[in-house]
Amino acid sequence: MTAWGFKLTGVGSALPEKVLSNQDLTAWMDTTDEWIRERTGISERRIGGSTSGLATQAAQRALDAAGVSPSSIDTVILATTSPDHICPGTAPAVARELGLECGAFDLQAACSGWVYGLVVANGLMLQGMNRVLVIGAESLDRITDYHDRGTGILFGNGAGAAVVERDDSGAGQLLGWDLGANGNWVHILYADHGDTLKMDGKEVYRQAVIAIQRTVQATLDRAGLTVADVDIVIPHQANVRIVEAAWKKVGFTMDQTVMILERTGNTSAASIPLALDDALRHGRIEPGNLVLFVGFGAGMTWASALVRWA
Ligand code: UT7
Q: Is 142 in the pocket of ligand 1 (CB under 6 A)?
């Protein structure tokens, strides 16, 4: 087993104020609150704000929680599917707002993006960096058609961020990870330039359950550990039924799983750090716990990372 000294020293999140509830959607969409809750687990999502604005808020909270100065950050990785502009990336604007003077780039791996970012951050630390800010931020309302009942019921805005630091003490570790992609599935979830998200929901559902099982196993294998070793699981918040279906095969329980999508909907790259922040605020993670992050989404992409919490 190869483990890498790695700890998340500060986590923060941000949601826009404006709530779009299931009930609101029924005013113009042929759907019901009951249908959406039963089929997805979602009651409401947030809309408004910008990707850079939400990212800046979440990242500032993460920096405050870590108690580190902006000048000590070596790189900003911003995972997003809904950047402020096609060009340039959104990360440089966020770095400017935070007063950082370091490298800053966007990472596009859809809903798996923040977990990809964690693994990239680990690689940068192996190159000698000490602190990397890993943000997931989305303003999906810009690419969601809230009149389309196949997609409009799912997506919302938000951001989450973590300060990731090298930990030479060995208390915090990245015990295992896995990154994957299969470009044969581009057509099941995509947005063309200037257009909204198009999705074959059933196929995404099916492929997501397969991808989750596969990536969890790969990460556990790399760590030399089993399902029974994991304390807390933080999956991408897309649909509670996807997670339940995957866990039936994998063996995790919903009690050890952090779910917040009832209040946020699917916030793509932001969903895992948003859920992580919620879990920390509710005291669900203790030092020494093994925390597994699992992402999956458009691409298809998938990613998981197993962290010993310090
Ligand atoms: O980050 C990854 C992002 N994407 C996802 O995670 C999406 C994964 N897929 C899903 O979450 C689900 O496929 C959906 C929630 C999108 C749809 O749920 P489903 O259980 O796959 O529903 P369905 O498309 O099979 O539709 C079942 C029925 C159909 O009616 P009939 O043909 O049985 O009469 C649909 O027309 O439900 C109807 N329906 C709706 N009814 C009320 C579809 N959407 C809605 C709706 N409200 N919003």
A: no
Choice among 22, 122, 236, 239 that is catalytic:
236
Q: Decide: 241 in ligand 1 pocket, CB within 6 A.
A: no
Distance CA 160, CA 138 (A): 9
| Alpha-carbon torsion (137, 259, 294, 167), positive or negative | positive
Using a 10 angstrom Cβ sphere, with 0-12 exposed, 13-18 middle and 19 or more buried, the burial of residue 133 is: buried
Active-site annotation holds for 236: yes
Sign of CA dihedral 302, 276, 13, 9: negative
Closest Cα partner for 119 from 310, 301, 306? 306
Whether residue 88 is preceded by a cis peptide bond, meaning omega within 30 degrees of 0, is yes
Q: Ligand 1 pocket: which of 81, 186, 202, 242 to mutate (most atoms <8 Å of CB)?
A: 202
In the chain the domains, ranked by start, together with CATH numbers, are 7-165 (3.40.47.10), 173-308 (3.40.47.10)
Instruction: Supply the pTM of this predicted model.
Output: 0.97
Euclidean distance between CA atoms 22 and 20, whole angstroms: 7
204 C-beta closer than 6 A to ligand 1: yes
**Tokens for 61?**
């909270």
Q: Which of 111, 122, 157, 239 is catalytic?
A: 111
Residue nearest to atom 12 of ligand 1 (CA): 201
Region of residue 132 (left: phi > 0; alpha: psi -120 to 50; beta: else)? beta
> What are the phi and psi torsion angles at 295 (to 5°)?
-115, 155
pLDDT in tens, 232-291: 999 999 999 999 999 999 999 999 999 999 999 999 999 999 999 999 999 999 999 999
111 is catalytic: yes
